[in-house]
Design goal:
about 210 residues, alpha/beta, 8 helices, about 30% helix, globular
């Protein structure tokens, strides 16, 4: 069953389409790890947001600037500490949480500078990952996690259930959530309503302080 939450066009990655549909028009947005700026460009044009991005890649930042976007080059973990309280309405962290060394400290910092934070991440508890471990006894390699154990940028193993337990532990409330089934850079996908922790390839959650 196709998700009904997606309004943006299908030229964006499916998880970014979902995220874009959650952003309020005219709001102040910070996109961390914004890459080539597809999400920011859409939000700026269609929702008139006041958007800022941060990315480590000089080439990607240059591409964003060519598109007329406001983007900084650098390590966003260091950059976010310079922003004042509630500087943004929404902070976006898409498919990056599993690569962060200090996710708890980062999320606390993001909830300081943003009223709400949207996080998306690959679900390591998907059935394909479980099957590879059970059947072959090897670290999973999937479309969503296309790396071997020795060259992966992912340093965290996160499931949808893990992340929800983590939020409860640190006293953070989930405002919206959706589990989706899509490939890494696919423009299409569908929402998963049942048995999310085993059937969904990605989790997306909007959170705020209680």
């Amino acid at each position: 069953m196709m998700s009904s939450v997606v309004d943006p066009p299908e030229q964006m990655r499916f998880d970014l389409q979902v995220i874009a549909s959650w952003v309020e028009p005219g709001s102040r947005v910070l996109d961390l790890g914004c890459a080539n700026g597809d999400l920011l460009a859409y939000l700026k044009q269609e929702k008139q947001v006041q958007g800022t991005g941060i990315d480590f890649s000089e080439a990607k930042v240059a591409r964003c600037i060519e598109r007329g976007l406001t983007v900084l080059q650098g390590d966003f973990r260091q950059e976010v500490s310079d922003y004042p309280v509630n500087r943004f309405d929404t902070v976006i962290l898409s498919q990056t949480l599993q690569q962060i060394r200090d996710p708890k400290e980062l999320l606390v910092d993001l909830l300081r500078i943003g009223k709400r934070v949207i996080v998306s991440f690959p679900n390591f508890a998907h059935w394909s990952c479980r099957l590879q471990i059970l059947w072959f006894g090897t670290a999973p390699v999937t479309d969503q996690l296309p790396y071997e154990w020795y060259n992966t940028p992912n340093i965290r193993v996160i499931s949808i259930r893990d992340f929800k337990r983590f939020l409860h532990t640190i006293g953070v409330r989930i405002v919206k959530e959706v589990a989706i089934n899509t490939h890494h850079h696919d423009f299409k996908g569908n929402s998963v309503r049942y048995f999310k922790n085993i059937r969904a390839t990605y989790g997306i959650m909007m959170v705020e302080q209680v």
